[in-house]
Amino acid sequence: MIKARKARTAATARSNGNFYTQSKKLLLQKLRSSSFDPNHYRIVYMGDSWAAEGNNTGVAVLNEALNVTGRTKPLYTLHGGDAVFTGSKEQLNFFVKKVKSKIPSIPLFVSVGNHEATFQNGTSSLTNFKNIIGPKELHFVVRTPFVKVIALSSVSANGGHPYGLSQSELNFLKKELNTNVKNIIITTHVPPSDWEVGRAQFNKLIQKNNVKLLIFSHVHAYRKFKYQGKDAIISGGAGAALDKNQINHILILTVRNGNITTKKVPISWQL
């Protein structure tokens, strides 16, 4: 009975608007649930899937990444971008359908990547992303107890380049950093090392503010490092062709009593 009720609730939340809007509604329902423990919950992060019919390896990895996510039972999931390969309507709808079938009751938010910003017949596929995935502004915030995730667009409409943060993205970041939250996480697809615009202003903003963690993808690898004195992770192992000596993986972020820990979880898959 309880499982059936949860399934109906998730189905209702998933029925209207683009995927971002549906996930926001679903997250709100979960936060209001009597079973939600604000002092102990998880967030899953994955990046770079290249999901498309015909990409058998990428789809197999994504399937298992979503299976592991489902067993982890996170409050929600973040995807770091390059969820698909070309940004076509067909590939974006394929990705959404896959997520809904594998983790119907878990919200998933996508930070736009360069593969969602490809050119097709002279038109940027970002229009498809805005309509199918969303949000239309390309940046967003996810607020949960003790944690605020700020997701930014580091790609442009003309095939992704120039990489980096536009002035509007920097203005959005500055506004959202003006907050009293214990843990601020900033995520965007392209790591600052590859940016062509906005890096200096970004560096100043994160140095002046209480940023707990930076998460990037784009590089098909796992790396944990310091950036401008802040903890940073690159995680791009959810289905795209891996860099040398790397493995498929996702991240699990555990929030316990207001503190965040991260864990890399390998993904084993087969065709």
UniProtKB/TrEMBL annotation:
Top-level taxon of the source organism: Bacteria
Ranges where the Calcineurin-like phosphoesterase domain occurs: 62-222
Molecular function per GO: hydrolase activity
InterPro entries per record: Calcineurin-like_PHP, Metallo-depent_PP-like, STPP_CPPED1
SUPFAM superfamilies: Metallo-dependent phosphatases
PANTHER family, alphabetized: METALLOPHOSPHOESTERASE, CALCINEURIN SUPERFAMILY, SERINE_THREONINE-PROTEIN PHOSPHATASE CPPED1
Pfam families (UniProt xref): Metallophos
Protein name: Calcineurin-like phosphoesterase domain-containing protein
